[in-house]
Amino acid sequence: MAADAELQRKAGPKQAGSTGRPIRFVAEVEAQPLAVRMLLYALLKRLEHHIGPADAGSIELVLAEILNNIVEHAYDEGRAGALEVVAELRPAALDCCVRDWGRPLPDHAIPLGGLPSTAVAIEDLPEGGWGWALIRDVARDLRYGREGECNVLQLAIPLSFD
Amino acid sequence: MNLEAAVLGDMLVVHVDADRIDAACAIQFKDRMREVAAGAPSRVVMDLARVRFVDSSGLGAIVAVMKFLAPARRLELAALTANVAKVFHLTRMDNVFTIHAEVPGTGMDHGG
């Protein structure tokens, strides 16, 4: 992987696709918080010479929210299954496909993701519920479906190369 | 997770010595904050200069800290990195917290 990144760097512009060979990342891990963290580290390592820090932040945030949702909601605590991430760098976006084999999203639909209200007393402030709002804010072209027992979520994360 | 706390005048400054507050460490972060903030003065400033990533679980943990400090003590935040500031902005939680560009009264020195 390191040699690969070195070759890409020598080949010229950082922009994806400029060398003709797509930058791809594929990983399958157990749906656990630490495994999610390691997957995100590995993905950002794979992309580090091709994107800027703002893009890395967007990718890490969107995928962390999606993968944490799978850990917390698709599987039962202590009985985790697998999750899979396939990502491919395009000229202006990172295309992602996330699969898991847990329970489907409620109503088989991507949640609307409204922001919880902050106009409340301190003791009533939300301690969660921002995940889908963040995902919808940053990602584009979200599509969800079931393939047999598998949840499939596809999305694109726009990149600015800043 | 390593938290370094120091009393500075009327405030307790807590330097978060971790590069992320995420789902994998949110509970540990809350527990450690509870320990270091026990007996703190009325103002607690959390220095986030070393934290480059916060997800919604980490944000929820920071809100939980604010809630358990209240009403006697007030939590303020300082030195948010760009990607962390973005999460506070997108969730509108930047309206809820007092956020300082740097730890008050310490200039750019986070070295303790």
TrEMBL record, chain A:
InterPro entries: Anti-sigma-factor_SerPK, HATPase_C_sf, HATPase_dom
Residue intervals of the Histidine kinase/HSP90-like ATPase domain: 35-156
Species, as recorded: Albidovulum sediminis
One Pfam family per UniProt: HATPase_c_2
Coiled-coil intervals: none
Signal sequence interval, chain numbering: none
Keywords on record: ATP-binding, Kinase, Nucleotide-binding, Serine/threonine-protein kinase, Transferase
Name used for this protein in its record: ATP-binding protein
Lineage of source species: Bacteria, Pseudomonadati, Pseudomonadota, Alphaproteobacteria, Rhodobacterales
Keyword presence, Kinase: yes
GO molecular function: ATP binding
Domain of life: Bacteria
UniProtKB/TrEMBL annotation, chain B:
Coiled-coil segments on the chain, per record: none
Superkingdom of source: Bacteria
InterPro entries: STAS_dom, STAS_dom_sf
Signal sequence coordinates: none
Residue ranges of every copy of the STAS domain listed in the record: 21-112
Pfam families: STAS
CDD domains named among the record's database cross-references: STAS_anti-anti-sigma_factors (cd07043)
Protein name: STAS domain-containing protein
Lineage: Bacteria, Pseudomonadati, Pseudomonadota, Alphaproteobacteria, Rhodobacterales
